[in-house]
């Protein structure tokens, strides 16, 4: 028993350490030692039921007594006192047996630390202290972990954190939750010379401020930041008492500066000031006492008009300021004692104003100048610029014109002639006076005396320089002879030209003007090249020659028709009259084919020709309108060149209207000219495509516009013609409104007549009008020629005009000459035709006829063994025969369907014996002997479009429709199929139109855009040509094809393109190209003679043209 007590005491000591020493010591001396057990730990806030601690071996009832420590017992309940520590309780059972229990007492449960303020974005860890561990945590207004870390969520304020120990004791802390830590700057951007305060907010004060990166420094307590002169981006941090941080960036700009920092300006000059650094935006003001003005926002400064010292102040958004000093000065000026001078003299330049001293220099031109005195001399003539620079760099300039020394040009002038004295150098104006000799002078216009000799004249210029010149008085130039000699068989005609007293000469074709002349010296010419791009031959031409001596000019002219044998046909075949106008009995005619204006006498003889294609004076492009005045001058509307040209009755160029070119928006500008008219006072009226009439005076000055576009009275739509009566009233063919209007000289509407239709008094397609001597008005439209009284009352109508051969006359223009004869221009068929009072026609100029050697729609051609040329004419219903030189030999046939007659003959083929076959519209082929006598008719039941003979005398033909080539046996008259072109490559969709057979009996078939070659048995061999615009291609279906003795293939399409191909079908050369300048317009037939010369019939021009084997055009 005693041993157990000692063991228990040792255990208690080991368990409790020194804390129980006093208790044990107090028990010493007792025997045996007491038994001490350990009880549960309590806090001062708890009580304990001691009955739970009685020994199992004891016997109740038990009594309890605190023998050591701060506690009391009441019954079975132990209540700790306020002092923590161990409490020793003695337990005595009913047997008196004692036991001891040590109960540890702790202080009251608490929470640590006592942090009462947090930020909403922070977390904080709380711990339990004292009480009886382990602890658990709970919270309101946030979340808390098992380890005590609390995170506010902002749901309530204040928040609460509670700690609970193992006995259920609790301790709490109420927490104020502040906003998250942040900071603010009173300026986000500052200049390097500014400071800024960083202020913390939220979090848990107190705050500490620090500089994380960038220039400058910051006060840790006040948050005041200064850059220390540095620039860039600074990062500033605030830290609260819990260590939370918040960063903010600050931009530090350079210090504010004005640009430029100083300036020197001239008075009234505008200059722009700007700012850099500081904090935009900037404002600009003037300093006190400044005279200039400045824009508050833009910094645009305007200097005053007097010298001054100004201050420009720029202020930024933080109130920082910077200044710029402006010095305003009056500009330096420069003056010379001359504005012009003769080379070799000296000029002096003087500067004033600005800031002396001055420096003089040459900035353009040459010469020498004294940099200090300003004395200048030039080396060459021209414009020179002198510059002065003052000490501030301000400059001024002076321009002086230096001219060559005045030199008079000696000259020759014809006796009695007036000329202008010329000179070089000097300063205009220059005057002249006679020093010696005869004659008279007015300004620079010198009139020579009537006898030969010399006159000395003195010239004086505006600067007083003088020079003398000598006029040699000579006889004027004169022609001894001038003629253009025939025959005209090439592009070079022979000239006979002799004269006297000339220095230079000029030759021109169809232009009676020296403007544009290339004056040449030396021997007079003996030939003239008259090559032109189109329609060169069988064309009346006028040749104008000029001799010049000094300013005196002599002129001569000759007028001839280029009468080569080729092309075959009428000399007027290419004539295309569009306008005709009578003056007296003479006729002015515009020929659109050239283009030129021809003057005819009343018998149809060409008097002369003026103009050709071009833009120089006397040239046209093309004509639109033709009129003459009472003096016989002719006025020509030159459409593309936008002018009206005036010529004398002899064709001399006089002037153009408007007198000077004008812009497209100016009065006097022409837009698609329509017609020209002249009144008795010489005023010129021009109708153009803007539906107006422009009036000019006699010297070409614009006066007024008459009319406008519309349907009302005095308005027009598409003016076709205008004429002026003796009172100056204007009659207008108003085509778009189908009427004639009469307008007063002042432009006031007077009357109208006509309406749309083909009845009497109605108009359909107005063309032309004429005012006869009785006052009647003649009007031409598509339906005929109508006559009206002067008041517009309908009188009569001639529906159709016919020529002597009953061909219809398609009138494009008409006039009535002084004898009352009606003259019409027929650009379609006849040419120029006159009609008497009974409308009986008399041709003056015939484009075609049934005369020998003339054609009316030539078709196929063929060359016989004797090299004679045979031509079929569909509309003259005949065949003509020419020798190889183009001389007419005979004609065969007439209009009809009898034997030996023709109905539109087309194809021809000739036998070796001279007999020939002809096909016409009558579905037949006729045979004639070499003398042209009918022999036989073959009714073939179809129309043959081309014929060819093989070496055996078999006749082959192409039908109007279908692709089969037919064979006619001349002996039996039997027609059989030779072969079919259909299905062969490039055969096309149209029926073949041409056939030719070579010496080996190969066939050449013109089909669509190709020439197809077949063997004698009809086997396809190759093709040439094709559709296109490249070399060897055609733009239209072919009209015919032929083969040359050397195997070359010649083909032409229906628009004028003709090519030569080799015997293998390869392209060799082009004879004619379609478009402007084409040699052939409407090719229909092709033939080749034994020498390889090529003949092409042109149904559009009613000609047969001749070309060399290489495709060069021949004329005789």
Automatic annotation (TrEMBL):
Entry keyword Membrane: no
Top-level taxon in the UniProt lineage: Bacteria
Keyword vocabulary terms for this entry: Repeat
PANTHER family xrefs: E3 UBIQUITIN-PROTEIN LIGASE NHLRC1-RELATED, PROTEIN LIN-41
Taxonomic source organism: Bdellovibrio bacteriovorus
Keyword Ligase: no
NHL repeats: 607-650, 703-746, 845-885, 889-931, 1068-1110
A Pfam family recorded for this sequence: NHL
The protein's name in its UniProt record: Uncharacterized protein
Gene Ontology molecular functions: zinc ion binding
Family matches, as CDD domains: NHL
InterPro entries found in the cross-reference section: 6-blade_b-propeller_TolB-like, NHL_repeat, TRIM-NHL_E3_ligases
């Amino acid at each position: 028993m005693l041993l157990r007590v000692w063991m228990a005491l040792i255990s208690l000591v080991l368990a409790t350490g020194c804390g129980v020493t006093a208790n044990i010591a107090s028990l010493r001396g007792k025997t045996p030692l007491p038994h001490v057990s350990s009880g549960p730990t309590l806090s001062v806030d708890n009580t304990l039921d001691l009955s739970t601690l009685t020994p199992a071996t004891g016997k109740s009832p038990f009594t309890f007594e605190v023998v050591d420590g701060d506690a009391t017992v009441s019954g079975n309940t132990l209540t700790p006192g306020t002092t923590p520590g161990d409490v020793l309780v003695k337990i005595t059972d009913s047997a008196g047996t004692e036991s001891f229990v040590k109960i540890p007492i702790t202080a009251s449960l608490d929470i640590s630390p006592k942090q009462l303020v947090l930020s909403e974005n922070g977390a904080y860890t709380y711990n339990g202290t004292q009480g009886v561990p382990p602890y658990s945590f709970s919270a309101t207004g946030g979340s808390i972990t098992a380890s005590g870390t609390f995170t506010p969520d902002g749901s309530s304020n204040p928040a609460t954190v509670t700690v609970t120990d193992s006995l259920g004791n609790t301790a709490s802390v109420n927490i104020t939750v502040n906003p998250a830590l942040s900071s603010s700057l009173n300026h986000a951007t500052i200049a390097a010379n500014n400071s800024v305060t960083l202020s913390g907010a939220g979090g848990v004060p107190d705050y500490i401020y620090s500089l994380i990166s960038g220039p400058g420094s910051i006060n840790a307590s006040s948050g005041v930041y200064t850059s220390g002169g540095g620039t860039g981006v600074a990062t500033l941090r605030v830290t609260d008492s819990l260590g939370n941080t918040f960063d903010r960036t600050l931009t530090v700009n350079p210090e504010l500066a004005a640009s430029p920092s100083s300036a020197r300006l001239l008075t009234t000059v505008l200059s722009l000031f700007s700012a850099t650094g500081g904090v935009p935006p900037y404002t600009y003001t003037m300093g006190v006492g400044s005279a200039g003005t400045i824009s508050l926002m833009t910094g645009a400064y305007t200097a005053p008009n007097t010298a001054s010292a100004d201050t420009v102040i720029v202020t930024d958004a933080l109130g920082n300021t910077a200044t710029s000093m402006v010095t305003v000065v009056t500009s330096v000026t420069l003056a010379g004692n001359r504005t012009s001078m003769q080379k070799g003299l000296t000029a002096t330049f003087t500067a004033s104003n600005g800031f002396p001293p001055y420096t003089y220099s040459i900035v353009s031109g040459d010469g020498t100048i004294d940099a200090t005195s300003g004395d200048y001399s030039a080396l060459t003539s021209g414009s020179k610029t002198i510059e002065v620079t003052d000490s501030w760099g301000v400059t001024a300039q002076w321009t002086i014109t230096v001219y060559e020394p005045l030199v008079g040009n000696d000259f020759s002038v014809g006796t009695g002639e007036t000329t202008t004295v010329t000179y070089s150098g000097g300063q205009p104006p220059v005057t002249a006076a006679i020093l010696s000799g005869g004659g008279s002078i007015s300004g620079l216009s010198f009139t020579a005396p009537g006898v030969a000799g010399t006159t000395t004249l003195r010239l004086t210029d505006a600067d007083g320089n003088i020079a003398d010149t000598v006029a040699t008085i000579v006889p004027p130039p004169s022609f001894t002879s001038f003629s253009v000699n025939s025959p005209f068989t090439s592009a070079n005609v022979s000239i006979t030209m002799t004269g006297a007293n000339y220095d230079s000469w000029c030759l021109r074709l169809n232009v009676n003007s020296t403007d544009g002349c290339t004056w040449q010296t030396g021997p007079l010419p003996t030939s003239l090249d008259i090559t032109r791009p189109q329609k060169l031959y069988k064309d009346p031409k006028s040749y104008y020659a000029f001799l010049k001596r000094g300013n005196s000019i002599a002129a001569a002219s000759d007028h001839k028709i280029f009468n080569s044998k080729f092309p075959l046909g009428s000399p007027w075949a290419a004539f295309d009259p569009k306008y005709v106008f009578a003056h007296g009995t003479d006729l002015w005619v515009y020929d659109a084919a050239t283009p030129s204006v021809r003057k005819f006498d009343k018998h149809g003889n060409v008097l002369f020709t003026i103009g050709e294609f071009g833009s120089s004076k006397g040239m046209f492009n093309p004509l639109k309108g033709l009129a003459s005045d009472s003096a016989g001058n002719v006025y020509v509307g030159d459409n593309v060149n936008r002018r009206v040209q005036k010529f004398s009755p002899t064709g001399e160029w006089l002037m153009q209207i408007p007198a000077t070119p004008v812009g497209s928006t100016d009065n006097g500008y022409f837009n698609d000219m329509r017609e020209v008219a002249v009144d008795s006072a010489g005023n010129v009226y021009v109708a153009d495509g803007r539906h107006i009439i422009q009036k000019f005076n006699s010297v070409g000055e614009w006066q007024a516009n008459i009319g406008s576009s519309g349907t009302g009275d005095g308005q027009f739509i598409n003016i076709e013609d205008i004429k002026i009566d003796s009172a100056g009233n204007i009659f207008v063919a108003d085509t778009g409104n189908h009427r004639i209007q009469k307008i007063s000289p002042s432009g006031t509407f007077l009357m109208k007549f006509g309406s749309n239709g083909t009845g009497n008094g109605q108009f359909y397609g107005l063309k032309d009008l004429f005012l006869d001597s009785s006052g009647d008005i003649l009007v031409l439209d598509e339906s005929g020629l109508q006559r009206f009284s002067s008041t517009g009352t309908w009188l009569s109508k001639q529906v159709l005009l016919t020529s002597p051969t009953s061909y219809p006359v398609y009138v494009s223009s008409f006039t009535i000459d002084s004898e009352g004869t009606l003259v019409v221009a027929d650009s379609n068929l006849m040419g120029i035709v006159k009609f008497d009072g009974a409308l009986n026609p008399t041709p003056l100029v015939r484009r075609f006829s049934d005369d020998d050697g003339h054609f009316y729609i030539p078709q196929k051609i063929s060359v016989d063994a004797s090299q004679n040329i045979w031509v079929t004419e569909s509309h003259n219903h005949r065949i003509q025969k020419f020798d190889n030189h183009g001389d007419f030999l005979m004609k065969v046939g007439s209009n009809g369907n009898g034997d030996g007659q023709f109905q539109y003959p087309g194809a021809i083929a000739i036998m070796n014996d001279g007999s020939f076959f002809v096909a016409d519209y009558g579905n037949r082929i006729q045979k004639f002997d070499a003398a042209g006598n009918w022999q036989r008719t073959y009714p073939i039941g179809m129309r043959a479009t081309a014929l060819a003979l093989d070496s055996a005398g078999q006749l082959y033909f192409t039908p109007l429709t279908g692709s089969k080539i037919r064979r006619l046996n001349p002996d039996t008259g039997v027609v059989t199929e030779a072969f079919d072109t259909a299905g062969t490559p490039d055969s096309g969709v149209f029926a073949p139109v041409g056939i030719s057979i070579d010496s080996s009996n190969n066939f050449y078939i013109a089909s669509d855009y190709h020439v197809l070659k077949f063997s004698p048995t009809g086997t396809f061999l190759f093709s040439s040509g094709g559709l296109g615009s490249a070399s060897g291609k055609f733009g239209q279906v072919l009209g015919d094809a032929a083969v040359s003795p050397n195997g070359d293939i010649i083909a032409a399409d229906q628009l004028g393109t003709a090519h030569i191909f080799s015997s293998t079908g390869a392209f060799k050369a082009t004879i004619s190209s379609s478009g402007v300048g084409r040699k052939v317009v409407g090719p229909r037939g092709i033939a080749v003679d034994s020498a390889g010369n090529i003949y092409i019939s042109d149904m559009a021009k009613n000609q047969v043209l001749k070309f060399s084997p290489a495709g060069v055009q021949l004329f005789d």
